Amino acid sequence: MTEKGNLMLKKVMIGALVLGAAQLAVIAPATAETRDVSWFLSPTEVEPGGQIYAETKAAMGGCGPATPVTSPGFAAPLQWTIGGNWGKAAGYGKVGKTPGKYTATFTCSDGTKTSRAFTIIGTPPTTKPPTSTKPPTTKPQKPAKPTAAKPKPQVAVKPVGAPQTGGGAFGPLTWEW
After folding, report:
1. How far is C-alpha 165 from the geometric centre of its chain's CA atoms?
2. What's the confidence (pLDDT) of residue 150?
3. Beta strand 113-120 pairing with 45-46
4. What is the pLDDT, as a whole number, of residue 122?
5. Which residues contact 62 (CB under 8 A, 6 or more apart)?
6. Is CATH 2.60.40.10 what the domain over 34-120 is classified as, yes or no?
7. CB neighbours (10 Å) of residue 52?
């Protein structure tokens, strides 16, 4: 190959490298913004006013949180108060009182925003609602007289076992020495 050919090949190779780097620089930030961060909320169905737990591990697909976890379903933002191995960040929080489906969100230290869904479940009423709003038309009855319940007699039970007070492990056996 001639020197002119080598020079041309070098220019083409450098151009390809620069173009590849430029494409990577354009694509990489978009990928960082859309990646899903590994973290969880537990439980995903919570009683009104109940406790909820969040955890992420940066070294295992999670991230280092830059903000607390927030949600319209939280009584207050969930703070990351627990640390640990693998870049663990975790914390407990309280949910609100209004039943419904909510989304909890936080921002990672690299700018990625991530969300998880949870539900505040409703509690059914404990009393049956009245079927009629009209007052009763009958005369009120007198309350029944309370009657004293007679106690049932107890049957005497003879204990079995030595020394006739318990145990009972060898009750049917006799030990004569």
Report:
1. 52
2. 73
3. parallel
4. 85
5. 37, 38, 39, 56, 87, 89
6. yes
7. 23
Q: Which two tokens stand for residue 111?
A: 């700018």
Alpha helices (H) along the chain: 3-34
Would the pTM count as exceeding 0.90?
no
Closest among 83, 32, 78 to 57, alpha carbons compared = 83
pLDDT at 29 over 60: no
Eight-class DSSP state of 132: -
Nearest to 101 by CA among 56, 76, 68, 71: 71
For residue 8 the two structure tokens come to 């041309």
Structure tokens at 5: 């050919």
> Alpha-carbon distance 88 to 68, whole Å?
14
- For the chain, the structural domain boundaries read 34-120
Residue 163 has pLDDT above 90, yes or no: no
Pairwise CA distance, residues 2 & 95, whole Å: 75
So what's the pLDDT on residue 25? 47
